[in-house]
Amino acid sequence: MTARRQRGGRPRDSRVDDKILRTTRELIDEVGYPALTVDQIAARAGVGKAAIYRRYASKAELAFAATMYDQQPPPLAGTGSLHGDLLSLVRAFHIRMAAPAARQLAPALISEIAVNPELETRFQDTFLAAEQAAFAEIIEQAVARGELAGTVDPAMAHLLLLGSLASALYIIKLPVDDAMVTDLVTAAAAGITALADRRHSDPARANEPR
């Protein structure tokens, strides 16, 4: 049996995890996020509410995990180039972020984060930390290949790409297609390269936090 860690640090059954996430996606499709309740999820999944709250701090966090992340960010493609790795990662995120359930949930989640410091902290420590770790690995590999002159803050790479993508999808509401995703990645890769060059060429910036 595969076990993960729940909020209290104890092992948890991945089969229950999967059932909760799958049920959440089904109910969002059926009733929409605003009408969704933890009671509905627990009843259909055949688990207690306590089992859900041991895993997720709120309905918003659970719905976000179920519709957009399913616990883990996309695996890295290892294409051998900075542009290729970024493009593969952002394409995978675009599929998740552009889904109807995600478009419905994201504005509600943003609103809840704004008034719930605990949810904001958990969002930063789980989802955003995992995303930034993926960007950090891509940047480290590009540095190791000699493609970048030095490292770049992964939070900046994350902002350039997923921040722009989220803004386009949820705020400006643009019809984002693969051509636009490719353009975003091309621009961001050039920006990351320029940042690495500037840090490498400016000794005063070399010791700044990354």
List the helices and strands and how they pair.
Elements: E1 3-5, E2 11-13, H1 14-31, H2 38-45, H3 49-55, H4 59-69, H5 82-97, H6 100-115, H7 117-144, H8 154-171, H9 178-201
Antiparallel strand pairs: 1-2
What does this molecule look like?
With 210 residues, this protein is mainly alpha-helical. The chain folds into 2 domains: 3-55, Homeodomain-like (Arc Repressor Mutant, subunit A, Orthogonal Bundle), CATH 1.10.10; 67-205, Tetracycline Repressor, domain 2. It is built from 9 helices and 2 strands, in the order ββααααααααα. Strands 1-2 form a two-stranded antiparallel ribbon. β1 (3-5) and β2 (11-13) form a beta hairpin. It is elongated. The termini are far apart. Residues 1-5 have low confidence and may be disordered.
Task: Looking at this protein, list some descriptive labels.
single chain; 210 residues; mainly alpha; Arc Repressor Mutant, subunit A; Tetracycline Repressor, domain 2; 2 domains; two-stranded antiparallel sheet; 9 helices; 3% strand; disordered N terminus; DNA-binding transcription factor activity; transcription; transcription cis-regulatory region binding; DNA-binding; Tet_transcr_reg_TetR-rel_C_sf
